[in-house]
Structure formats: structure tokens, C-alpha cells
């Protein structure tokens, strides 16, 4: 190699080595940024997982609370209905419709205001009807009534001999009480 080649080659190699140093620093900076963002993503995933776990717990608690509320509401409604049928209360049951809900019957289609009376109203004597059909007819008139309350009232009507349990989930109205007034 000639002197002129050496003069040119050594500064060029030195310059390339400077570029290598600069690029190494850039690579280390990028590696640090990747590590930092990976840590931030891991922390975000941990926080998200905690939130999802908390949501699952809250949904479970909500489901239990709703089931307990429905059960308590059904118990109260059944007790009020039973007490009303025995004439032991002067207050209308909590499942009574709003006054004026039906122009022909001030407390709605069931003139006595009891859920049992409403169920008798929606049944046709001698005709079989499924529990889901009873729910639909009751909900059409009183959407706030719980399934458990309907089942409890059906049980009371069965014990009183007003409805027959033809088979599982199917009932039949046996007779209308003499004092029963319907919306039909």
C-alpha cells in the first residue's frame, strides 16, 4: 500500500469506527426503550387482569344479589297474597298494579290485587297452560312480578284446589271462585 492509500484508509476506518460507536449507542438506546415499553405493557396487562378479576367478582356478587332479591321478593309477595286471601291485611300486596292501570278494574285486571287472582284471570277453565305461558301473560299485565312469585302463587292455587298440576310445568284452572270477577 502506498502512503497516499494509508493516509486515506486510516481516517476512513476511524470514521467508520465512529459510526459504529454512534450506531451502538442508538442500538442500546432502542434496547432500553423496548425494555421500558415491555415493562409498561406488562404493568398494564397486570392492571387489566386485576380489573377483569374484579369485574368477575362483582358480576358474581351482582348475580347472587339479584337471586337473593328475587327470592325475598317472591317470599314477601307470596306471604302478602296468602295473608290477603285470609283477610288478615288491610294493605294491598306489593305486586298490585298501579291504580287506574285498567279502566274496568281500578287495581288492574285482577280486581283483588293479589297475584293469585291475576293468575286466575289469565287462565281459562279446563284449558292446559304451561308455566312459561303463564309468566308471559302475567308479565304483560305486571312486568315487575318475579318468576318465583308466580310459582309460589301457582302453588297456593294448587293447594286451594283452584288449579290442577296436570304434569310438570303445566297447569289447568279447575273452577272460578263464585266471588271472582275477571277483566275478560
Commentary on this structure:
This protein has one domain (1-184). The protein has a three-stranded antiparallel sheet. It is rod-shaped and about 130 Å long. The chain has helices at residues 3-85, 115-122, 131-141, 147-159, and strands spanning 128-130, 163-167, 170-173. The protein has 184 residues and is mainly α. The protein contains four helices and three strands.
**What is the typical, i.e. mean, pLDDT?**
79
Q: Helical element count?
A: 4
Low-confidence stretches: 91-112
Shape: rod-shaped
- Indicate the proportion of strand residues: 5-15%
Structural class: mainly alpha
- Give the N-terminus to C-terminus distance in angstroms: 117 Å
| Strand runs, count | 3
Proportion of helical residues: 55-70%
Largest sheet, if any? 3 strands, antiparallel
Order of helices and strands: HHEHHEE
Q: Biggest sheet, strands in spatial order?
A: 1-3-2
How many separate structural domains? Answer: 1
Radius of gyration, CA atoms, in whole angstroms: 38 Å
Region (Disordered): 86-111
Compose a concise summary of this entry:
The chain is 62% helix and 7% strand. The chain has four helices and three strands; from the N terminus they run H-H-E-H-H-E-E. The chain has helices at residues 3-85, 115-122, 131-141, 147-159; strands at residues 128-130, 163-167, 170-173.
Amino acid at each position: 500500500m502506498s502512503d497516499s492509500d494509508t493516509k486515506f484508509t486510516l481516517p476512513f476506518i476511524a470514521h467508520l469506527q465512529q459510526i459504529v460507536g454512534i450506531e451502538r449507542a442508538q442500538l442500546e438506546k432502542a434496547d432500553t426503550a423496548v425494555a421500558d415499553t415491555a415493562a409498561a405493557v406488562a404493568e398494564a396487562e397486570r392492571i387489566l387482569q386485576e380489573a377483569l378479576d374484579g369485574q368477575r367478582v362483582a358480576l358474581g356478587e351482582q348475580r347472587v344479589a339479584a337471586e337473593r332479591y328475587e327470592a325475598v321478593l317472591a317470599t314477601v309477595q307470596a306471604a302478602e297474597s296468602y295473608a290477603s286471601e285470609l283477610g288478615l291485611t288491610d294493605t294491598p300486596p306489593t305486586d298490585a298494579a298501579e291504580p287506574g292501570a285498567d279502566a274496568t278494574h281500578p287495581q288492574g285486571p285482577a280486581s283483588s290485587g293479589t297475584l293469585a287472582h291475576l293468575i286466575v284471570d289469565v287462565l281459562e277453565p279446563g284449558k292446559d297452560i304451561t308455566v312459561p305461558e303463564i309468566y308471559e301473560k302475567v308479565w304483560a299485565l305486571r312486568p315487575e312480578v318475579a318468576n318465583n312469585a308466580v310459582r309460589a302463587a301457582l302453588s297456593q292455587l294448587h293447594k286451594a284446589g283452584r288449579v290442577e298440576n296436570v304434569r310438570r310445568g303445566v297447569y289447568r284452572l279447575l273452577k272460578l271462585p263464585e266471588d271472582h270477577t275477571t277483566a275478560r
